[in-house]
Amino acid sequence: MTGGPAVPAPTRAELRAHLVRTMIAGGVATPRQNNLLHFRRMANGLPYYQFGLELDPAWTERTVLAMMVERCGVDPDPMHLYGDDTIDPDLTIDALEAMGDRVGLAARRRENVVLATGHPANLTPLYQALARALAGRGCRVLTPSGGWTYQAIAYGPTELRRLVYAPGGVAMLEDDGGRTQHTHDPDAMQEMLAALAPRTRAFDTGAGVESARESSDWPDLAIADHGWAGAAGQAGIDTVGFADCNDPALFAGAAEGKIDVVVPLDDGIYPQHYAPLTAFLLARAGLG
Question: Residues of 217-249 as b/e, b for ≥16 C-beta within 10 angstroms?
Answer without folding.
Answer: eebbbbbbbbbbbbbbbbbebbbbbbbbbbbbb
